[in-house]
Structure formats: structure tokens, C-alpha cells
Amino acid sequence: MQDLSNEELNKIKKTNDKLAKKQLKKQAYEEKQQILNPYKIDLINIWKKYPKKVLWMFVSAFLYNIAITVFLKKAATIASGTSSLSQIITFTAPQTADFYGLFYVLVNLPLMFIFWRHNPRMFMVLTYYWMLFQIIVQCIFIDYNKANPIIKFINEKLSIYNPTGRPGDYWDPFGTNITTGALQKLVDSGKFSTISEALNDALKNKGAFYDGQNWPIIFYAALGGIAEGFASVIAWKQRGSIGGTSVISNYIAYKNKKPVGNMFLIVALCFSTFSTIVIGTLEITNKVPEHKWHKGTSGQEFLVRICGTLIYLVVFTLLVNRYYPKYKKVKIEIYTTKVEWIAEHFKKIGYIHSYNIFYGVSGYKHYDFAKIETIALYLERDWIFEEVKKIDPSAWISTSNIHDISGQFDTSKVD
């Protein structure tokens, strides 16, 4: 057999190295997919495997639209996420305002494509459906030819303040300005002889009025934060999201195992700073047709709108952290006389966290007992309680908060 030359040996070595690298990449990809998509979910089979989750995403989308249409739109809050791009479009082109939801989805599609391979697949699929439902639900709230009875009801009946007191009128930060100062300017310009005459002219038509009162902005912003907060909680509890900033926030939280609400607040503040500068500049230079900038009043109103946006974000964050503490961890101590049975049961149900067992004697009745100590996710707590009680109904269980840990921690049950 003829010996191979060094050149041929090098070629064979390079070929083998390429094959080995290709095999390693394939193996790494398969391992990553196993982590990101353990339930083998796609856009089609999720209807068969988890139909309730999809339906809850519809509920979340509906509540989100209530938050936007009924509260945040009235508060004129500055957009705090990727929605800021949609808001800039609709502000500068008022004729497109009814299609805010469509712009919101279009703006977020690039993010959805980018993070498809980085967020858990369940999360991304449900978020896609949420965005689809968002477009469908928004059709209910489009003010077709200014004659949608639903919008009329929202404006006139779901209003906390009526500046004129007349039926059919409502407060709006960009409505007809009826402040005393504005009326006096009309008199001074010679258009009217008295303030009363100017006021009567301003009140000829019913509709939206602004009288210089800014407290409704804060009130509507807080209510909007509550409504959108619960919309997000519903989506996240199903392992989805309301898209936009939530997609970025979930990725950061997933990688660093940090509270989702806190990550959302940080990302939202970054976007909010950008949108405040852009929208503020557009309004000051009168580039937003529907938002006329009046000297003296508009500056104050804009500052209150910024405060309203911050209040909305804080309320939203508090609700999400309170009702969906995704990566919050707790130490659980289980005192029982059936420790071996419980340990065996943990193996059967596939309990994924490590635990320690300590034996001792009770101080009151001097019975032999054991303590099982483990660290788990807060969202797993009730499930652990139920499983332990199945084996030992008289087991005594205590929990305490864990503020920080160092090392790997399995969060696959909530990812």
C-alpha cells in the first residue's frame, strides 16, 4: 500500500476537521432547540396542544386595546417602547391615527424575526398570535368616518371630567381651548367684544374641550398602567407577551434571570427618552397638526404628560412584578416524618432542583423528623406544596425570599 503524501494527509485532516466542526454546530443547534423549544411548538400545532393559552392571548389583546383607547390615548402619554415609532407616524399624519395598532405590529415584526431564535419558542409563537389578535381587536376601535358608536361612548360616557358640564362634551388635552387666557386673546384680537361672546362661540359645537386642567392626565395614565399591566400579566402567565419592548425585556430577563418587570422598565425608559425628545420637538415646532402648541399652557401640559408616562410605567412594572415574578426565588423548608416517601415522590414527578435532607428530633414531642431544604422559583411554590401534601398532609412548610444566588439555576419550568 502506497504511503500518502503530506499534502494528501493535510487535505484529509482539513476535511475531517470541517466535518467535526459541522457536527459540533449541528449538535449545539439541536441542544439549543431542546432548551428553547422543549414542547415542540410551532404556529400550527399550538392550537391543538395549548388552545387555552391562545385564547388567553386574545383576552390580553382586548384588554391592551382598552388600556390604549380608553385611558392612555386620553392621557396623551408619550410612548415608551417600540410603539413610539407608531406614535410618531400617527402624530405627524393624523389620517393614519385609526391604524395605530397596524403600525405597531409592522414596527415590531423585525424584532420578532430577530428574537425568534433567541427567546423560548412558546413565548414567540404566543406573541405572534397576540399581535394578530391586536390587529383584529383594533378594528372595533377604529373611528370610521367619525361615526363609530363605540368611540363616541368611550369619549363621552367613560370620561372622568367634563369641562363644560354639557351632555356630549368631554375633556381632551388637545380639544378646543376654552381657558380664560385663550378667550381673552380672542377678545383682544377684535374677533369678539366680550369673553362671554367668545365662550359662546367656542361652545357652539359639542365635543372635546380643554380648559387648562391637567390632573386628568395623571388619572388616565394610572388607569392605563393598571389595564395594560394586567394585559401583560395575562400574556406572560401564558408564557407569551404583548410584543414590542416585552420581546427585548424577556430576552434580557431570560439570559440574566432577572425580574421581567424590572427589565421592561429599564428598556421602556430608554425608548421613552428617545420618543420624548422626538415628539416634544415635533410639537414645539408645530409639526403635529392635532397637537397645537400654545405658549404658556402647552409647555406645562407636556411636562404633565411626561409625568403621566412615568406613572404609567411605574404602575405597569409594579403590577407585573407583583403578579408575575417570573424569576423570583424562594427557599422552601419542609418538616416531615415521611421524608423518604417525599424524596421518592420528587423523583417520580421530575423535580428539577437540588435539595438537602437534615434529620433531627422535635423539641415539643421529641419525635424523630427530617427537614427537606430546597431553593425553587416562586411560581413553583404552590405546585410543590400540593405535591408534598399528597404524601404527608401534616407536613409543616415554610418559605423565605432569596435575594441573590450565584451559579446555574434551572428555570425551564417557567421559560
Structure at a glance:
The chain is of the alpha+beta class. It is 57% helix and 10% strand.
Keywords:
single chain; 415 residues; alpha+beta; Alpha-Beta Plaits; 4-stranded antiparallel sheet; two-stranded parallel sheet; 15 helices
List the helices and strands and how they pair.
Blueprint: H1 6-36, H2 46-49, H3 51-75, H4 83-92, H5 100-115, H6 121-138, H7 149-156, E1 170-177, H8 180-188, H9 195-202, E2 208-210, H10 215-237, H11 245-256, H12 260-284, H13 298-323, E3 329-336, H14 339-348, E4 355-361, E5 368-377, H15 381-391, E6 396-402
Question: Describe it for me?
Answer:
The chain has 415 residues and is of the alpha+beta class. The chain has two domains: 20-161 and 213-325, no CATH class; 329-402, 2-Layer Sandwich (Alpha-Beta Plaits), CATH 3.30.70.120. 57% of the residues lie in helices and 10% in strands. It has 15 helices and six strands. It has helices at 6-36, 46-49, 51-75, 83-92, 100-115, 121-138, 149-156, 180-188, 195-202, 215-237, 245-256, 260-284, 298-323, 339-348, 381-391, and strands spanning 170-177, 208-210, 329-336, 355-361, 368-377, 396-402. Helix 4 packs antiparallel against helix 5 and helix 4 packs parallel to helix 12. The mean pLDDT is 85.
